[in-house]
Each structure stands twice: as C-alpha cells, then as structure tokens.
Design a protein that fits this description.
Blueprint (H helix, E strand, L loop, with lengths): L2 E5 L5 H17 L12 H9 L3 E6 L2 E10 L9 E2 L8 E8 L8 H15 L4 E6 L4 H9 L3 E8 L2 E9 L3
Parallel strand pairs: 5-6
Antiparallel strand pairs: 1-2, 2-3, 3-5, 4-7, 6-8, 7-8
Length: about 170
C-alpha cells in the first residue's frame, strides 16, 4: 500500500471530523469515558490545522487517518506523576483516529511510524504520548512499538497513562 502522511488542510475538516466522530462512538461502545466530554470537536481540528499540527494519513488521496503532532508543546507533561525517560526535545501526538472501514489493518502503527520519521527528520529522539487507562487498543500498540510507561498526567480532570519512546540517534 502506498500511504501518504501529510499536513491536513482546512477543507478536509468534514472528512476528519467524520473519522473522529466514529472513533468517539467506538470508544463509547467499548465502555470508555475517553472522548465522551465534547472533546475532540471540529474546533479542535481547525486549531490543529491552523497551527500546522494536524496530519492525515491518506491512500489514493482518500483520508483514512488523523492525528495531531506537536513539538515540545504539552504543558501537562511537565506535571507528570512519575518520570519521563528523557528531558530533551520531544514530539507529542494526540487524537489518533482511523476511518472505520480501515480498522484492523495496523494503520495506527503506520501513523506512529510516520511520527517517528517526522521526529527524526527534526533531529528529535523522544516521542511522548498519553492515553486513557481503558484504551486497550492504543495500550497494545504502545507495547508493540516499544513505548515505556512513565507515569500519569491529567487532562480535563481525568488521569491518563503517560508513555515515552526514545528513538535511536
């Protein structure tokens, strides 16, 4: 498969929001409280894109995945209950979502591999992320890709598990 991972455009918000809405519904059906509080929403996506941090995964120009990728931009990570592996520059990603008709193909891992490439292209060797304690799919991906649990962080009043992966220089 020939995937592309690129910055999202404002005109793509409806397609991205459709993917995220279905992911929000899946989290609800899984019994999770993640993404059940009005976040994420179209305004969040718009801000991601305006800040040039919104990225899409495409195949044949069809959007099949979305994430936000930022550099050194997660204030809550400074308040970790635990300890990060590194204190260097880092890439952080949020809001990974795959289109419903493309689930089960390992595309979240594809996105995370592209994020590693992005980090290395910026000479950054740390990737930090967080997820809900009941997001078993993402927890499994973190384990398979070598992320290490570092502690907990808090967002919108909820505890999240914090992970870091140190990349080889």
């Amino acid at each position: 498969m020939s995937y592309q991972f690129r910055k999202a455009n404002l005109s793509e918000i409806p397609s991205i929001w459709d993917i995220l809405q279905k992911a929000i519904q899946r989290r609800k059906e899984d019994g999770s409280n993640q993404w059940q509080d009005g976040y994420p929403n179209p305004e969040v996506i718009q801000k991601d894109i305006e800040k040039e941090t919104g990225f899409v995964l495409t195949i044949e120009n069809q959007i099949i995945g979305y994430t936000a990728v930022l550099i050194n931009d997660e204030p809550e990570y400074a308040k970790i209950i635990g300890k990060w592996l590194t204190n260097e520059d880092f890439v952080v990603f949020h809001r990974v979502a795959i289109a419903e008709e493309h689930l089960g193909k390992g595309l979240s891992k594809v996105i995370l591999n592209y994020i590693e490439d992005f980090a290395l292209s910026k000479q950054i060797y740390s990737i930090k992320a967080d997820t809900n304690f009941d997001n078993f799919a993402m927890l499994s991906i973190f384990e398979k890709l070598g992320y290490q649990h570092c502690g907990e962080v808090y967002f919108r009043g909820g505890e999240r598990l914090a992970f870091e992966k140190v990349l080889n220089k």
